[in-house]
Amino acid sequence: MDEGLFDAPGSGSRASGGSLTGNTHASAPLAVRMRPRTLDELVGQAQLRAPGSPLRRLVEGDQPMSLLLWGPPGTGKTTIAAIVSQQTDRRFVEVSAVSAGVKEVRAAIDAARAELVGSGRETVLFVDEVHRFSKAQQDALLPGVENRWVTLIAATTENPFFSVISPLLSRSLLLRLQSLTDDDIRAVLAQALADERGLGGRVTVEDEALEHLVRLAGGDARRSLTYLEAAAGAATSQGSDTVDLATAETAVDQAAVRYDRQGDQHYDVTSAFIKSVRGSDADAALHYLARMIEAGEDPRFIARRLVILASEDVGLADPTALTTAVAAAQAVQLIGMPEAGLNLAHATIALAVAPKSNAVTLAIGAATADVKAGKIGPVPPHLRDAHYSGAKKLGHGARYKYSHDEPFGIAEQQYAPDVVADAEYYRPTTLGAEAAIKERWERVRRLIRGSGG
Known about the structure:
Radius of gyration: 30 Å
Number of helices: 19
CATH class of the largest domain: Alpha Beta
Largest sheet: 6 strands, mixed
Structural class: alpha/beta
Number of domains: 4
Order of helices and strands: EHHHEHEHEHEHHEHEHHEHHHHHHHH
Number of strands: 8
Strand order of the largest sheet: 1-3-4-5-2-6
Distance between the termini: 63 Å
CATH superfamily of the largest domain: P-loop containing nucleotide triphosphate hydrolases
Shape: extended
CATH architecture of the largest domain: 3-Layer(aba) Sandwich
């Protein structure tokens, strides 16, 4: 369940007098106490907070419109709904797609309509995880949106073009929320350490410990504050007002992985990962993959490296390798972490145990070397474009043999320029599926060049 940025607890539907900031007593979770109260307090999402942006106009101009917020967990979806409610003095009602059905949705809309008619006060209806709603449940939202009985703010972590019905999507303004950066998370933690609503300067965090909390947060502000609260509590229980790395590691039960995403560790671990997959050691490859994931490495970077390796080191020895790697990269984009770690592991193991061939790499390297050396002869006349007027007079297309009219679908004719007519760039290995390709390619090459079948 996507908790949004500093979600208040609860399920089903909840109505409040206009905000989610009432749960700010001293025993409330730090993430709840530090919930941003205005757009200016919201960390990250600069594109949504900019002057003149739709969200800014909704909040400051009090313009009625429905929003669909799409983004990873912990990026501010629930907080934005609360800010809209509080700053526009609208009544706030939350419906969770996990526990509410059509009946609860209709009841919330009916109550909002009655409130609008009776007192003139508008209602913000926040639907968390709207992608979990069935089509019928999403249909139930339409009357309230169409008639503006509610200002719908729906949140989803999944692509709404696949998970939200078209009528609802077309009636809502889609806002894309981005993952918080490490600097954003540092700002969240710094604010919580200094603000009286948070720790009020009573606890300090050493740099190493702070970076550990930032890394573990993975761009999720709520998670970062939950970890900070645990670490601060652990330090206090030991009679200390300082959180060091050991305390932070103990408090969140996760050791700091020594890994600098801009330093030597990044390059060394990545190199070891690629070389382990190339060397067919699936166990070592998984070790380095786990180190990268736990250190907060960008999963898109890992996926890109696997896509490259699929062609560079496996090639046609296993023609499915590239498909597997690309599918994993797409899954990373669609699903996100931590679940996408399974897709990365799947691709890593598949590429590690696959037969290896660098014939593709050598082939394009050899062809490129010839081109760079100036071996760029004219295209043979029979291969040139013959579709335009006057092309035949130039001899274009003359004596071209249509492959499908020839025996075995292969015509004996010259395709390469004269200067590289005898070049043999692709030299298949006998490994894996490439053994069969080698046998066929050598036979085909002989047929094309007229050197026997």
